[in-house]
């Protein structure tokens, strides 16, 4: 099995394993095939961890896109923690853009999430055709009595191909939202509903300067998150509940079977009666 | 040369055998933990730890009183044999099985169950395993209900504690990976004076526990969708309209001018 095939198998396996055990499954998988490590960490989404930037006393989110070895880069100070020599940082142009993006998505986050943490990391594309970025948002919440708890993690990866001497751009967005809900009411024992959904989008837009990218990317992500939110609602609270209720019924099945039979007999009787009655159409 | 290649091959064979041995114990744990269903002589039976005979490959189905070898990879039963029933416990076992069936037919569209019984140190030990699943891989989902009930009591009967563990698992994996994992433990003391009466009490406890649990799960869904989910992220900002990104963009420019 070659490297690419191994990665496909590993990703396929990760998709089918319980999402609650993502970290354990990932580390077990890495033990099994050590040289997939780098590739796997880059492709499989784990719940976002938080770190504090000691300089600015602001929180930021950790992911593979701000990681270099075992250190993570803060979007506020642009420095690695723990400090490393020659840690990978964006070019001046992209760092300036990254600062703007963090500011903009902070405001976006506040409007939709009314709290939480957001972080944006951008980097130049190697072939010089543009740049790419990761926009992350994390929000947690619980009920006053802590019986219900939930967390939302958004990971948006955007690729921007700059064209027409900077007057056009092609955007490719891959978004994953992880949603975790826990409940510890005695009546329902231990209850966990969790996992993630992913979607993609592409578009072409006109660009006048770097700020245009904020508008274009912002609109794309807002539309994408609203779309995913609706799907999460349907899948989590509609579909999984429906499947659960298919394995055991709260309605007496024998009683229902009797009712179905009765309804069927009545429908038959009614049909027979209609056939006997002469057709009273206007003459 | 040739000698080197032979030892390479042996090393490889040892590795594969090692992997398969580790894998088979993983399969055994997984299959028995999951109350896997298998067809034995055309009827559905459960593969459970309680029903496992010594070799960990042979299992017994107490309903038909048959034993079989189970192939985990193929999910197949073979070498089916008749097993004599234990007359010391069969009266109780059969009474519970019969009362249980009436209940299962009421609420489970496709149930598979097993009532195990044995006698040890003048105590009758009953274990009831219930499962019902719906698999739909073509539509990327599956779901399973699983419950296990245990009670031990002296052969003369009496008051005894019934313990139960109920578990529901749902998996949805189209363009994503979402799982419901929930389980609950319950216990209650029931009167076990005679097989018929004792069986009725046991089944009544199972019925009320499982029904209450399913109702509580549904309540969770309503509550979480109405409160927890909404509190994580709004449908729209308070303005009730999408963000004006041009305006948002200009805020930053304004801030820059202020800082000069």
Write out key terms for the chains shown.
heterodimer; A: 283 residues; alpha+beta; 5-stranded antiparallel beta sheet; 3-stranded antiparallel beta sheet; 6 helices; B: 260 residues; 10 strands; extended
Overview of this protein structure:
With 283 residues, chain A is an alpha+beta fold. Chain A has helices at 3-16, 22-32, 37-43, 92-113, 210-247, 253-276; strands spanning 49-53, 58-62, 67-68, 71-73, 80-81, 117-124, 130-142, 148-163, 168-183, 190-206. Chain A has 6 helices and 10 strands; from the N terminus they run H-H-H-E-E-E-E-E-H-E-E-E-E-E-H-H. Chain A has a 5-stranded antiparallel β-sheet with strand order 6-7-8-9-10. In chain A, helix 4 packs across helix 5 (210-247). Chain A is elongated, with a radius of gyration of 26 Å. In chain B, the strands form 3 sheets. Chain B has a 5-stranded antiparallel β-sheet. A 3-stranded antiparallel β-sheet of chain B has the order 3-4-5, with no helix packed on it. By secondary structure, chain B is an alpha+beta fold. Classes of the chains: A alpha+beta (283), B alpha+beta (260). At the A-B interface, helix 4, strand 7, strand 8, strand 9 and strand 10 of A face helix 2, strand 7, strand 8, strand 9 and strand 10 of B.
């Amino acid at each position: 099995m070659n490297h690419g095939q191994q990665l496909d198998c590993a990703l396929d396996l990760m998709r089918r394993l319980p999402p609650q055990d993502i970290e354990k499954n990932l580390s077990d998988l890495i033990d099994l095939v050590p040289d997939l490590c780098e590739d796997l960490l880059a492709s499989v989404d784990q719940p976002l961890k938080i770190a504090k930037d000691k300089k600015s006393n602001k929180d930021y989110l950790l992911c593979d896109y701000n990681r270099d070895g075992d250190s993570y880069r803060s979007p506020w100070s642009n420095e690695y923690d723990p400090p490393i020599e020659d840690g990978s940082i964006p070019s001046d142009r992209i760092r300036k853009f990254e600062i703007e993006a963090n500011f903009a998505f902070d405001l976006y986050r506040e409007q939709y999430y009314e709290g939480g943490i957001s972080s944006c990391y951008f980097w130049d594309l190697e072939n010089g055709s543009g740049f790419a970025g990761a926009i992350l948002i994390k929000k947690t919440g619980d009920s006053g009595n802590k019986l219900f708890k939930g967390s939302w993690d958004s990971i948006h990866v955007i690729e921007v191909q700059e064209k027409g001497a900077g007057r056009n751009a092609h955007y490719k967005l891959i978004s994953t939202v992880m949603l975790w809900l826990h409940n510890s009411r005695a009546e329902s024992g231990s209850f966990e509903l969790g996992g993630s959904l992913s979607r993609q989008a592409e578009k072409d837009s006109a660009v006048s300067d770097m700020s245009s990218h904020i508008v274009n990317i912002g609109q794309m992500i807002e539309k994408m998150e609203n779309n995913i939110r609706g799907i999460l609602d349907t899948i989590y609270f509609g579909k999984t509940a429906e499947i659960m209720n298919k394995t055991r019924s709260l309605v007496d099945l024998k009683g229902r079977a009797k009712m179905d039979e009765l309804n069927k007999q009545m429908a038959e009787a009614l049909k027979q009666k209609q056939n006997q009655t002469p057709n009273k159409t206007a003459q | 040369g040739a000698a080197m290649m032979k030892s390479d091959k042996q090393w490889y064979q040892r590795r594969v055998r090692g992997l398969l041995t580790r894998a088979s114990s993983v399969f055994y744990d997984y299959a028995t933990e999951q109350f896997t269903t298998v067809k034995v002589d055309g009827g559905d039976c459960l593969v459970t730890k309680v029903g496992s005979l010594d070799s960990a490959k042979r299992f017994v189905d107490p309903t038909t009183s048959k034993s079989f070898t189970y192939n985990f990879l193929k999910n197949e039963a073979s070498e089916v044999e008749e097993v004599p029933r234990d007359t010391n416990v069969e009266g109780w076992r059969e009474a519970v099985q019969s009362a249980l069936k009436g209940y299962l037919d009421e609420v489970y569209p496709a149930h598979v169950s097993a009532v195990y019984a044995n006698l040890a140190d003048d105590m009758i030990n009953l274990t009831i395993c219930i499962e019902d699943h719906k698999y739909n891989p073509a539509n990327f989902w599956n779901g399973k209900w699983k419950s296990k009930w245990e009670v031990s009591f002296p052969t003369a009967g009496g008051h005894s504690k019934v313990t139960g563990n109920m578990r529901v698992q749902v998996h949805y994996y189209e363009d994503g990976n979402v799982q419901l994992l929930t389980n609950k433990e319950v216990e209650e003391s029931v009167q076990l004076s005679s097989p018929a009466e004792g069986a009725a009490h046991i089944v009544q406890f199972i019925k009320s526990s499982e029904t209450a649990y399913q109702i509580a799960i549904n309540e969770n869904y309503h509550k979480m969708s109405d409160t927890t989910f909404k509190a994580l992220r709004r449908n729209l900002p308070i303005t009730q309209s999408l963000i004006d990104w041009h305006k948002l963009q200009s805020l930053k420019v304004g801030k820059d001018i202020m800082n000069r």
